[in-house]
Write a structure and sequence with these properties.
Elements (H helix, E strand, L loop, with lengths): L6 E6 L6 H9 L5 E5 H6 L14 H23 L3 E5 L7 H4 L7 E7 L3 H10 L11 H10 L2 H6 L3 E3 L6 H10 L5
Parallel strand pairs: 1-3, 1-4, 2-3, 4-5
Helix pairs in contact: 1-8, 5-6
């Protein structure tokens, strides 16, 4: 696909929205693809790991900022080497500003996956790709849902994909059908 040169997809959404599944399926469509889940970078912290919480404790905020900066820098390195990159994280609509200094000149494609609260909770309860009990995310997902308005993302330039009734392949088709730049 000719549009993959120096492209960075940014996938946000609730835990359980399908960010990682979609990123992997999307990247299989390109000759070179790198998936950067910010959660994985955060899991490299061996001692002192601060889990996500709705009250945003300072240490968790700091660790998220470090992981996001690392993801931005690694994404840049790989995009410059010809990889299509997908960064996935629970990002706010304005969080692209954190990445902007690292991504000048890249084709950045921010997408909010918005399957709705019930679907995200169902998907979260069925997940087997986490090293912890995903039931710990139930209240976090509930709280985040009310704070992650698709309209706020749309106003900030994000594409919105309602992936509620879609499998990973169908969501990828929806992403590839989007018109860029937005």
């Amino acid at each position: 696909m000719g549009d993959s040169h120096r492209t960075v997809w940014v996938l946000s959404g609730l835990p359980g929205a399908g960010k990682s599944t979609t990123a992997r399926a999307l990247l299989r469509r390109f000759p070179l693809g790198l998936h950067l889940p910010v959660d994985d970078l955060r899991d490299f912290v061996v001692s002192g790991h601060a889990p996500p919480r709705l009250d945003h404790p300072p240490e968790a905020v700091r660790q998220f900022a470090l992981a996001r900066t690392a993801a931005a820098q690694v994404a840049r390195l790989y995009a410059d080497a010809g990889f299509t990159v997908a960064v996935d994280d629970v990002l706010w609509a304005t969080d692209l500003e954190l990445f902007a200094p690292h991504w000048a000149g890249l084709d950045v494609r921010p997408v909010l996956l918005a399957p709705g609260l019930a679907v995200a909770q169902d998907r979260n309860s069925a997940r087997t790709n986490k090293s912890y009990d995903t039931r710990t995310l139930v209240s976090l997902i509930d709280g985040l849902h009310s704070q992650m308005s698709p309209e706020a993302y749309r106003e900030a330039g994000w594409a919105i994909v309602d992936s509620a009734g879609q499998n990973g392949g169908e969501t990828v088709e929806a992403l590839l059908a989007l018109k860029w730049p937005r």
